[in-house]
């Protein structure tokens, strides 16, 4: 009897009655798997601080979800692994030298304010990881912007720093931005940055270490049918086109910063993105436009977080605008 | 060309970057009061565009023609503008009811509501005294600048209101904790939405 309740043989539900064997947990594990190469490589490349950040983000996300469910007397939802995905994504958009308590607070806010308060998985209006990050960025902007100056390159061994001409904490995007402001005064060669951005970029967030591995993970998810190609295509396409229109190097601007991680893993969050195909394309393009304009004309070197949160806020409206025609129905004439 | 850019910046700055609802938190009462129904939200937004444009034009003229020459502008402008806006909106409502029943049905109910909408007063005072708006600009808009600015404020109001209404429709069916059902959850959602608008701060140097 109890076995029947745990694994019912007959599922009673409303239409549609097609049941796919895929579960939430399976999808989440695929996302973790797709992120794993980039995450592991960033731990190898950045060392202990990266591992601390990952542990703090994922740990606090999981503990928060467990605690919330326990206090609210709801069934435990940890087994769907969505808290792990949120924590992992959150860690990947944090700089490695973020103090551990800040990572932990970001994880707490992401799960509590980003997801559980809306009723748990499937109800969040905004991407939980980005809510956590935006909260921390706004709360401790001063602390975060000073991080690179402390120099997390100090964690590299001496031999590793010897071959370098100069050590700078600034990210490539910040340098490119300063270079634009000085009308090319620094002579910053964007094309020369492709290789480090693709394979080993130590200036920036954990998810930016290797663009190639992020793209690889994204392609795996698209091929598996877990994410819709329209969102990343719209996002990256708009980003590249606008960067080119603004007179800069499109490939550099797609590879640098959070665009790839955002386009493949953040903007594609099922719950906070539109449901219709055309809607998704519009949503992706909106993210790209916001991100590009913010990058070129805004005070911050990077605006991926806010671009996706902004479009999350518009997602229900986009859904309303792109209601697909019901199969077999004829569009009714305007009265 | 430079003039077009100037007006475009004025519009974008008023509509998005300094969004009256989500960046400056003015007129929140209507933001939460109206946003539970898409139909009303759209009607309200259209009515706000109409009333704001009218109110700003009138108050701008009164400011330039009456208040400033008499030397009482600095301390009388708020009561004067409130009176003007309230009287004007009531008058327009009466006029619409008689002359254009269709238009009256479309936004008649919202007109008295807007009388007390602080966004209208905010736009009107800023058109007269734009010192607050972060843009390198002389103290005092021309009528054209004032109208573009007001249109920006009103369109930004409608944009945020309609987007938030769509969000709230999803929120209404979400299993949020009992203690937070309704307005508390709306406030939290609006807070998160305004967190997204923080990303717009300082664009184009505005």
Largest sheet of chain B: none
Taking all Cα atoms into account, the compactness measure Rg of chain B is: 18 Å
Low-confidence stretches of chain A: 149-168
Please work out how many helical segments of chain A DSSP would assign. Answer: 16
What is the domain total for the residues of chain B?
1
Structural class call of chain B reads mainly alpha
Largest interface, Cβ cutoff 8 Å: A-B, 34 and 29 residues
Largest sheet of chain A: none
Question: What do the pLDDT scores of chain A average to?
Answer: 84
Proportion of β residues of chain B? under 5%
Number of strands of chain B: 0
Residue share in β-strands of chain A: under 5%
Number of β-strand runs of chain A: 0
Distance between the termini of chain B: 19 Å
Order of helices and strands of chain B: HHHHHHHHH
Verbal overview:
The complex is a heterodimer of chains A (335) and B (206). Chain A is mainly α. In chain A, 60% of the residues lie in helices and 0% in strands. Chain A has two domains: 24-144, no CATH class; 170-318, no CATH class. Chain A has helices at 2-6, 24-46, 48-71, 82-92, 100-112, 128-139, 141-150, 158-162, 172-181, 194-199, 211-223, 230-245, 250-255, 259-266, 277-297, 304-321. In chain A, α15 packs antiparallel against α16. Chain A is globular and about 70 Å long. The relative contact order of chain A is 0.11. Mean pLDDT of chain A is 84; it is low at 149-168. With 206 residues, chain B is mainly α. Chain B has one domain. Chain A binds chain B through residues 72, 113-114, 117-120, 123, 125-126, 131, 134-135, 138, 290, 293-294, 297-300, 303, 305-307, 309-310, 312-314, 316-317, 319-320, and chain B through 38, 162-164, 166-167, 169-171, 174-177, 180, 185, 188-189, 192-193, 195-204.
């Amino acid at each position: 009897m109890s076995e029947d309740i745990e694994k019912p043989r007959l599922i009673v539900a409303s239409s549609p009655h097609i049941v796919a064997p895929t579960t939430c947990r399976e999808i989440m594990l695929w996302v973790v798997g797709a992120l794993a190469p980039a995450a592991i490589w960033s731990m190898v490349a950045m060392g202990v601080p990266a591992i601390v950040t990952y542990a703090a983000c994922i740990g606090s996300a999981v503990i928060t979800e467990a605690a919330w469910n326990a206090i609210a007397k709801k069934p435990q939802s940890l087994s769907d692994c969505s808290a792990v995905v949120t924590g992992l994504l959150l860690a990947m958009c944090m700089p490695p030298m973020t103090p551990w308590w800040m990572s932990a607070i970001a994880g707490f806010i992401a799960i509590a304010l980003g997801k559980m308060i809306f009723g748990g998985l499937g109800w969040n209006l905004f991407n939980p990881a980005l809510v956590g990050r935006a909260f921390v960025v706004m709360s401790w902007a001063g602390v975060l912007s000073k991080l690179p100056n402390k120099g997390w390159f100090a964690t590299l061994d001496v031999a590793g720093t010897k071959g370098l001409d100069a050590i700078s904490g600034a990210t490539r995007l910040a340098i490119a931005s300063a270079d634009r402001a000085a009308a090319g005064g620094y002579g910053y060669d964007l094309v020369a940055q492709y290789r480090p951005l693709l394979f080993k970029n130590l200036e920036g967030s954990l998810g930016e270490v290797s663009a190639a591995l992020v793209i690889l993970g994204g392609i795996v998810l698209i091929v598996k049918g877990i994410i819709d190609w329209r969102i990343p295509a719209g996002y990256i396409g708009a980003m590249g086109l606008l960067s080119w229109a603004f007179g800069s190097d499109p490939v550099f601007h797609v590879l640098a910063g959070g665009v790839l991680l955002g386009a493949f893993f953040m903007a594609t969050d099922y719950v906070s993105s539109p449901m219709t195909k055309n809607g998704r394309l519009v949503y992706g393009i909106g993210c790209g436009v916001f991100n590009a304009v913010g990058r070129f004309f805004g005070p911050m070197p990077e605006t991926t977080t806010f671009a996706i949160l902004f479009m999350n806020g518009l997602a229900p409206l986009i859904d309303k605008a792109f209601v697909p025609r019901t199969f077999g129905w004829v569009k009714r004439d305007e009265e | 060309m430079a003039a077009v850019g100037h007006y475009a910046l004025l519009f974008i700055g008023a509509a998005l970057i300094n969004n009256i609802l989500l960046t400056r938190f003015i007129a929140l009462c209507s933001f939460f009061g109206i946003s539970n129904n898409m139909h009303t939200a759209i009607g309200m937004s259209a009515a706000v565009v109409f009333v704001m444009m009218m109110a700003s034009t009138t108050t701008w003229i009164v400011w330039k023609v009456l208040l400033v020459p008499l030397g009482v502008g600095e301390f009388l402008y708020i009561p004067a503008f409130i009176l003007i806006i309230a009287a004007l909106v009531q008058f327009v409502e009466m006029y619409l009811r008689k002359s254009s029943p269709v238009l009256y049905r479309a936004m008649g109910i919202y007109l008295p509501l807007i009388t007390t909408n602080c966004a209208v007063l905010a736009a009107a005072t800023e058109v007269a005294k734009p010192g607050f708006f972060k843009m390198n600009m002389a103290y005092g808009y021309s009528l054209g600048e004032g109208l573009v600015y007001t249109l920006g404020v009103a369109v930004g109001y409608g944009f945020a209101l309609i987007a938030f209404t769509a969000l709230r429709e999803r929120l209404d069916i979400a299993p949020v904790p009992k203690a937070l059902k309704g307005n508390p959850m709306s406030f939290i959602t609006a807070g998160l939405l305004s967190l997204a608008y923080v990303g717009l701060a300082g664009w184009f140097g505005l």
